Amino acid sequence: MPIVTIQVTREGSGPGRTSVTAEEKARLIAGASQLLLDVLHKPLESTFVVIEEVDTDNWGWGGLPALEYRKQRAAGGK
Amino acid sequence: MPIVTIQVTREGSGPGRTSVTAEEKARLIAGASQLLLDVLHKPLESTFVVIEEVDTDNWGWGGLPALEYRKQRAAGGK
Amino acid sequence: MPIVTIQVTREGSGPGRTSVTAEEKARLIAGASQLLLDVLHKPLESTFVVIEEVDTDNWGWGGLPALEYRKQRAAGGK
Amino acid sequence: MPIVTIQVTREGSGPGRTSVTAEEKARLIAGASQLLLDVLHKPLESTFVVIEEVDTDNWGWGGLPALEYRKQRAAGGK
Amino acid sequence: MPIVTIQVTREGSGPGRTSVTAEEKARLIAGASQLLLDVLHKPLESTFVVIEEVDTDNWGWGGLPALEYRKQRAAGGK
Amino acid sequence: MPIVTIQVTREGSGPGRTSVTAEEKARLIAGASQLLLDVLHKPLESTFVVIEEVDTDNWGWGGLPALEYRKQRAAGGK
């Protein structure tokens, strides 16, 4: 009866995309469910997967909003 | 000081509805708070309830997006 | 396919108890599942309930650890 | 590697605002990350912060939707 | 910067085991991180995975504590 | 009515400590509650803080259990 929660920023994975696509979500669901089957022998029908998309403003890393932190890392030393 | 989090798919509960209504949310809040009062004697004013509506694309069951899994169950054996 | 998460402090609900009992947990599970059936017509077998017991040291209210806050409320004005 | 999740109602913090501003979110992210650095010596770049804004309809307190509960408290005794 | 949370019951995956092993946890962590890399091109070092083990008493399904529900399914029709 | 959830590994913050101390927890609770008061004018008594301590085996980063990943970072290039 596992529950897998996947939190990601609401962004596209490539140029011209602004969010996670339905096809990518389906692959995340399939992959996470399969992982629980492979490692812990949990039947597919007993696993729930919930995907939460979080606006980039609402995600912080390094003490900064996510996009600023990425810019800083890209520019700066680290 | 309980916190009750209720995650449901963003869908209507009957024909012509496309989401959980404000009245249904109020009933979920009242019912969950009452449950904590009845079972654990927690006063109503010390319980928080948070309802999270999840797009059907973002909910997986049986290794599939939720709507596909339901279709498969309705059609198939189980 | 609802998921209901119930977070409570790890305490007994009456004298001589130091934690939530298995019988109380079963009542929380039954009640939460029934609520989703009554309000949103979700079949019992599609609802998961997860109970999380949190040490009182790890729960804060009013800017204080929970037990201190309760003492202050009991003693003080509010 | 801490994760700090901040759940708040989707409301403005003052007249003329209807939601948490980007500047307020940045302050929450900075403050929460700094807190983990100060108390537990966690480097800023190892802390994630996720802000979840919850519609007021979806938040319950005192057995009621949040806005109704506030009205009742403002009006009533407590 | 994804966060993957995996909630499972605290049980062994085979005879003679009473909990998820460290080796199984490492496989869950590796697999979930790889999934985010494959599907959304998230670098491994930007993904956090948190595994939460939940006592079987604290997990409900079908309106019952998980072990009772399993017994009922095994015995009964469904 | 904010809820702040702080997830950290179950470790001491200095030599000779194997877990977060009660005093550190109290500081996290005070600081998080104050932050919500300062930034969003939320009264202290309307904020809940929940601290979740996660075993280091159960926390993944960089595709590895947390302690292995730290070792690798300390040893290796990054």
From TrEMBL, chains A, B, C, D, E, F:
The keyword Flavoprotein does not apply. InterPro entries: 4-OT-like_dom, Tautomerase/MIF_sf. Keywords: Isomerase. One of its GO terms (molecular function) is isomerase activity. This is 4-oxalocrotonate tautomerase family protein. Residues 1-20 are annotated as: Disordered. The lineage of its organism: Bacteria, Pseudomonadati, Pseudomonadota, Alphaproteobacteria, Hyphomicrobiales. Belongs to the 4-oxalocrotonate tautomerase family.
